[in-house]
Design a protein that fits this description.
Elements: E1 2-7, H1 13-19, E2 27-30, H2 45-56, E3 59-62, H3 70-78, H4 83-97, H5 99-102, H6 105-108, E4 111-115, H7 124-136, E5 140-143
Parallel strand pairs: 1-4, 1-5, 2-3, 2-4
Length: 144
């Protein structure tokens, strides 16, 4: 199974959609808690659904069960971005949500996990992909 990931910040729409042009990629999976803000620019939910289909011929799916909670995000920001604390809290959350059993593998297969962070290093999309890889096995992760 292959899972792609991408963040939209520090990318133009052209760069973003060009990176999504990957063999086997069929669906953009929005993992953000907040995806309707004006700050999201071309990645606001309804716009992104339209652009994904028209530009990349990709399905769009919002899976809020993959998003961190507001409490976890707020605590991360208040603690000056302590990644280790955030990572533990987020991994505990997705384990509690049992995403490996509540989300059908066919939804993730050929999907690209989307969030706002420019790189995967300090981003929950990477944690989701790695978590599912640990639970499901044989997952190839490709960060775009």
């Amino acid at each position: 199974m292959k899972i792609f990931t991408i963040g939209f910040t520090q990318k133009s729409a052209e760069q973003f959609f060009t990176r999504l042009n990957q063999p086997g990629l069929v669906r953009l999976i929005d993992t953000r808690l907040n995806n309707t803000s004006q700050l999201a620019g071309f990645t606001k939910m309804n716009d992104l659904r339209y652009f994904s289909r028209k530009i990349g011929n990709l399905d769009y799916l919002h899976l809020p069960q993959l998003a961190p909670t507001k409490d976890i995000l707020d605590a991360y920001r208040k603690n000056g971005g302590d990644w280790d604390v955030y990572e533990k809290q987020y991994l505990d959350l997705i384990a509690q949500r049992r995403i490996e059993t509540t989300i059908d593998r066919s939804v993730i297969e050929g999907g690209c996990l989307l969030c706002s962070e420019a790189t995967p290093h300090h981003c929950h999309r990477r944690l989701v992909a790695e978590y599912l890889g640990d639970k499901w096995g044989e997952v190839n992760i490709c960060h775009l």
